[in-house]
Amino acid sequence: MTNHWIDIKNSDCILIMGSNAAENHPISFKYVTQAMDKGAKLINVDPRFTRTSSKADIYTALRSGTDIAFLGGMIKYILDNDLYNKEYTAAYTNAPFIVGKSYGFEDGLFSGYQKNEEGPSLGSYDKSKWAFEMDDKGVPKMDRTLTHEQCVFQLLKTHYKRYDLDTVSKVTGTPKEDLLTVYKTYAATGKRDKAGTIMYAMGWTQHTVGTQNIRTMAMIQLLLGNMGMAGGGVNALRGESNVQGSTDHCLLWHIWPGYLKTPRASNDSLDAYNAKWTPKTNDPLSANWWSNYPKYSVSLLKSFFGEAATPSNQFGYNWLPKVDDNGVYSWFDLFDAMYKEEIKGFFAWGQNPACSGSNASKIRKAMENLDWMVNVNLFDNETGSFWKGPGTDASKIKTEVFMLPAAVSVEKEGSITNSGRWMQWRYQGPKPLGDSRPDGDIIMELGHRIKEAYKTSSGVFKEPIVNLKWDYDTNGVYDPHKAAKEINGYFTRDITIKDKLYKKGTLVPSFAFLQADGSTSSGNWLYCNSYTEKGNMAARRSQKDAANNIGLYPEFAWCWPVNRRIIYNRASVDPKGRPWDEKDWVIKFAGKEVGGKYVSNKWLGDVPDGGWYPLENPDGSKRADAKQPFIMQKHGHGQIFGPGRADGPFPEHYEPLECPVEKNYFSSRMISPTAAVYSTKADSHATCDPRFPFVGTTYRVSEHWQTGLMTRPQEWLMELQPNMFVEMSEELAKLRGIKNGERVNVSSARASVECTAMVTKRFKPFTIGYSTVHQVGIPWHYGWRWPSTGTEESANLLTPPAGDPNTRIPETKAFMVNVTKL
Amino acid sequence: MELNRRDFIKISGATAAGVAVSGLGFDLSQVKSHASMLKTQYAKETTTICCYCAVGCGAIVHTSKRGDGRVINIEGDPDHVINRGSLCSKGSALKQLTENENRLTEPMYRAPYSDKWQTVSWDWALEKITDRVKKTRDMTFEKTNAKGQTVNRTTRIASLGSAAMDNEECWIYQSLMRSLGLVYIEHQARI
Questions:
Q1: Measured distance between the N- and C-terminal CA atoms of chain A, rounded to whole angstroms
Q2: Which of A680, A642, A812, A396 is nearest to B190 (CA)?
Q3: B147 to chain A: which residues are within 8 Å by CB?
Q4: Are A599 and A605 in contact (CB under 8 A)?
């Protein structure tokens, strides 16, 4: 989230799309209803009428997988009716940038496309074709009047001209009058003192166009001037208590802690690595915060290897693994490799991929190829016990499995980071049950044993292991405070910065103090400031709000970066530093003014996103010492044109891999030309196939969590939601002669799952093009291990082998199924 | 004071209604009276953050200072600025996640081609895992790739996990996995 949970109360209009917040993030609704009590409008767009819909001022449905069509229509409406925030768009976004002549778009393809015959990626773009034109100083050419025919704003108009109400309605199945009502209501937040927010979740990410779903909304938020505002922003409702923290610490193949890049094989030295990934700008008004990259990468290497990391060995840079330049090692690719017998050993740590991964039958089959698996969890699960799952013969499966019992969160101490980036400390209540252990204890002991094995016997490339800094215990027991201090970072020698001496071992006050010469260590620059000489900031509990009284609670817990509660907040003020919204202001400039010029620098409110002077003086003259508000972007501007994305600089509607229509009304391209589609014999799919006539989607219920592994073994929650079900409309039930409560089969090109039919008024057939399309929904909380009947199976056995080109997140929200009576 | 199942369903329903679907006419006085009964005088009180979704609601854990030292009750934390004491159905049942007879309490091992689990000691399990990691890594380690570029990695061991761990655990875990040369490091955030 760019904003945070409490901030939702400050919104004037809340769009919930791609999420069912009332049921899946129930407490967030406290703030939705508070906003509504103050007059905010709630809009909900969802294929199914949910409990979120029941509270909405405006509800309308769309067919799964058509969000870009829906939102592209909103962009057209905003532009056609001049409802965008002109001052904001011209000053803070890249709408004025001039795009080079080699950019083009025709019939669903951007310029620079190349098909890929080998897969899994269907194709790729030469993104240099989408580059901005530069002036002689190397700064992007701009036309702040937004009229130049090659400026982003004009290209945007041209691109979305095709997204008229008729076409959008034909694709989405949403009635035209509903589209207009939603567009009009949301676009009203383009007024300078109004803010609209978006609450989205997996309903937007789990598509082959997932990244672009979110980008379309981010573009709308920029056009309406909603980024950086209280009650605005782009807000992903993340589904796991620490999935924000685990992402920040980068348990992902492509990034290192703090969103640094995993080194590519061609980055053959630390200098080459830093040079490759440190963006450069010639614009003096761009902060280009990532220019600090080498400070963060060297400090990270120091945290990996401590005193063994020295300038002469490039701080241990070459001890760490490199990925091939064009290699992809994502979840899908990991199991594809495992299926092809390319992986021998596997840690499934606090995970249940046998039920959580798309096309789970392939995952279960792949695990049979392993020599060994380590499964760490609270309960026995479908992953650890895969060798005795449905359809397996244990006597033919070679895999050794070690199942290690982990402690529950209340049995240990440490921090987690919520969706609003708040890092919160938890304490130990009871001791771990039986002989279970906290994950930290298991990791520490395993690390000690592996290091010992390499110290005492021969082994390949020992350096990274024997030199790994591994002192996060006290009296032989894992100590989360030591790890938290390592993450924050400390000075590795006495050093003077800004006339102040910092002694060796002193905790670094914030990332502005990190150095690229090895004098600082920090395990994650984004968390530098979380555990300082002032103490454990995440453990703070002050009830006091900030001066602007908008629910920032700056001394309750801690939030990254540097306790800034609303990021991009420099965009919440006009170029003179005055809040667009005087009532719910986030920051405001309070420096002294003499003769129409600012002469001292002071900001009030939230921690400003960079404390430079405003762009303009009160008399309208430009300041040379100011910075543009989007400090993480190379050119300092919010990106309406996104030339870094794999699938194009503007979002375009494509159909899901499996869809019910034979025609894409926007182009002759059906699926995204850069989607990843897998093709082993365990990866079948079927589109526009009469055997699978209904759109399927997955969702969650309040009483279960994710694959249900933590909730299915609980008696009360299981009684509330006892079995796998398929929700369908009364019309579809009638068509198939199915009665509510009957057991039925739901099948896709990959598998068949038995479900209890739940016939409701919450699904309604869509009119798509000129035909009727039915959609059904299934929860993904079940698996054969619990309940003990073994009959309630995972929805992910049905979901497809395709993912987003940027992230490879699976398309589990839109696929094709059949429903038949047993 | 133990809650019975019906009370739980009433309370969780009423709590959710108070939060998410206010105005349905539930009588909230029941919630208040139960909450006051559950104050436990002879227990250790610690704060926690709910382990399910990422709203980050606060809860109070009461742990017995006597007897088995187990959890007596877990309830919403009224001083937590986000949830102000409210919890959803899953959060309200947190005690049952902790005090649950289905939990794993001992390390277990499944041998190749075996049809059953056997209980093993931590020492035995960690020794064997260390052995497997070292053998697989040493046998499959690639110093260079097909192009001859230095890569110092193994692609034959993979790791998934975990958004269910604390920040500090995530950090030390990735540091250990990267030191071993793993490149297949993924977790829930990818799905």
A1: 44
A2: A812
A3: 265
A4: no
Q: What is the pLDDT of residues A16-36, one digit of tens each?
A: 999 999 999 999 999 999 999
- Tell me, what's the pLDDT at B66? 82
- Measured CA to CA, the distance from residue A554 to residue A579 in angstroms comes to 19
Enumerate residues 6+ apart whose C-beta is below 8 A from A376.
A347, A348, A349, A350, A403, A404, A406, A439, A442, B161, B162
Quick check: A321 contacting B, CB < 8 Å?
yes
Contact B54 A418 (CB under 8 A): yes
Determine whether the interchain pair A705/B90 forms a contact, defined as Cβ–Cβ distance below 8 Å: yes
Rounded Cα distance, B51 and A480, in Å? 17
Buried b (16+ CB within 10 A) or exposed e, B112-146: eebeebeebebeebbebbbebbbebbbebbbeebe
The SS3 assignment for A84 reads coil
Identify whether the C-beta of residue A250 lies closer than 8 Å to the C-beta of residue B174: yes
Per-residue confidence (pLDDT) for residue A769, from 0 to 100? 87
Q: From the CA atom positions of chain A, what is the Rg in Å?
A: 27
Are A413 and A480 in contact by the 8 Å Cβ rule? The answer is yes
Q: What is the pLDDT, as a whole number, of residue B13?
A: 44
A652: which 2 tokens?
Answer: 């375009």
Is the pLDDT at B37 greater than 90? The verdict is: no
Crossing angle of helices A67-80/A152-160, nearest 10°?
Answer: 120
ipTM above 0.90, yes or no: yes
- B5 in contact with A, Cβ within 8 Å: yes
Rounded-to-integer distance, Cα A222 and Cα A768, Å: 31
> What stretches in chain A show pLDDT beneath 70?
none
Q: Which two tokens stand for residue A263?
A: 């080194």
Q: Give the rounded distance of the alpha carbon of B151 from its chain centre.
A: 35
Note the pLDDT tens digit of each residue in B80-132: 999 999 999 999 999 999 999 999 999 999 999 999 999 999 999 999 999 99
The phi and psi torsions of A432 (rounded to 5 degrees) equal -55, 140
pLDDT of B22 strictly over 50: no
Alpha-carbon distance of B24 to A65, in angstroms, equals 34
Q: Which pLDDT does position A568 carry in this prediction?
A: 97
Query: Using CB atoms, which residue from A262, A350, A379 is nearest to B162?
Result: A350
SS3 B160: strand
Enter the tokens of residue A562.
Answer: 């540097």
Instruction: Please report the pLDDT score of residue B41 as a whole number.
Output: 73
Q: In chain B, helix, strand, coil percent, each to 5?
A: 35, 25, 40
Give the chain B residue nearest A269 (alpha carbons). Answer: B150
